[in-house]
Amino acid sequence: MHATALLLLRDNATVQRLVVAWPNVKQHRLTEKMVQSWAQVAGVPEYEVYTWMPMLVSNGICLKDGTVDPLAMGYLTRLAMARVPKEFLPKSDKPKDKPAKEGG
User: Fold this and answer.
1) Is the pTM of this model over 0.85?
2) What integer best gives the mean pLDDT of the chain?
3) Separation between Cα atoms, residue 47 and residue 66, nearest integer Å
4) Distance from the CA of 62 to the CA of which of 18, 31, 39, 89 falls in 20 to 30 A?
């Protein structure tokens, strides 16, 4: 995946929706039915699929086997988790580090 693709993933909600929806598209050959399905699953207009599909495929984000590049999916997961309020995140089992005692 190219660095420019990371910028598009970070700054474009439509691209994020298309990437996350890609594994749920039943057929991955370019047909009108595939475009309709992808648009419906992602909740975006069909023209957005035509606009962004070349970038997503050529940068290796949406793969022809129906999967998403693991780095891209991990990046989107981290972006999403950063938006979740801390009180809704799972509590860590690790004890917090205690501050070092001064003088001894």
Assistant:
1) no
2) 86
3) 20
4) 89
